[in-house]
Amino acid sequence: MYYVWRSVRNYRHKKSQLAALTSKPSSSHLYSGVKASQTIEFVVPTITLKCTEPSFSVTEESDSDCLMQFPYNPLNRKRNSNIQINENEISKSLYEELPAKPEDRPEINFVLHYSFVRQQLLVTLLSARNLWQKRNHVNPMAKVVLLPEKNPKFITKVQKNTANPVFNELFIFQAIRNTLDDRVLKITVYNADSFSRRHVIGRTLFPLKTADIHSRISKDIMTEDISCLLINSRPSGELLLSLAYDTNSSTLTLGTLKVRNIFDKEIETIYMKIVLFDKRKRIRSRKTINRKVESEIEFNDTFHVNATKEALNDVIISIAVYGKSHTYVNKHLLGRTHVGQSCPSPQGRQHWTEMCANLTDPINQWHIFS
């Protein structure tokens, strides 16, 4: 009985908060659902704050509706404006500047050995590191090919649950000396899922002449460890959004127009979920109808938010794209983006700034999934 009482109490408390933030409908008609072409009204309270906006961090790996997490900082609780610090009185010798941490980018490591007598290229695939992980789970494997010929091709064993696999496998290619100038080593790293499907993590192309293996050599060539960056040649998914603000009616209009570059062959239909945040609080969320996956999927849905011009500084809108398929038990997050003056996405902040600078016409912009 205690758990039932607590659930009812939490439900009533959340309902009272939502009623305080949104306006009551003018008519007594109750809507059982919202269509994509129907106007959705959001009422954002206007509160003038004298302090600056707090910083926040975003967790992109989560499929939940939570947009941001705000760490508690007791130093920001009260600020004393009477305290002034003179930078000339600070001894800079007491503070050492830490070196910038390099970005962890995916890499593949290998060693090349060309036998001049046998005219063979020996490729020792050592390891990879910093591989892209999806939901902290990756089973990497690699395929090695010596272009321009597509055969033979060699595939390594699957390494379970690691983003830094160690292969230590040797592959031998027949390579005539006169053709070495045009030979390129191609290494592709895949992620093998539980259904034995392979998804490309990244690939690299390494011309042999870069390692002084060319048609003019007269002895065996043995290289040291070679590290190459893995590049995913497939572009990320993109979403075309439209932003407009009407000063006369104090209405913010978000248009979800198109989606493109959805390369997952298992996805059959996609839909969007739009979540409105005001002052770090989740206010409302809406979903579009399912659309069939094509080369360029058109949505052409609009969503309206009633907010004063001063309240726009506290508004952030999250747009997440989900896919559905008969092979997926649950929904599959394809990517998300945000728009707002203080949103975590740089492209979302730029789009918002352009909208505020031009309040007469809608501003369209492509957003890359994050």
Automatic annotation (TrEMBL):
Cellular-component GO terms for this entry: exocytic vesicle; plasma membrane
Species of provenance: Oppiella nova
InterPro entries: C2_dom (IPR000008), C2_domain_sf (IPR035892)
GO biological process terms held by the UniProt record: calcium-ion regulated exocytosis
SUPFAM superfamilies: C2 domain (Calcium/lipid-binding domain, CaLB)
Name listed for the protein in its UniProt record: C2 domain-containing protein
Residue ranges constituting the C2 domain according to the UniProt record: 104-221, 235-367
Gene Ontology terms for molecular function: calcium ion binding; calcium-dependent phospholipid binding; clathrin binding; phosphatidylserine binding; SNARE binding
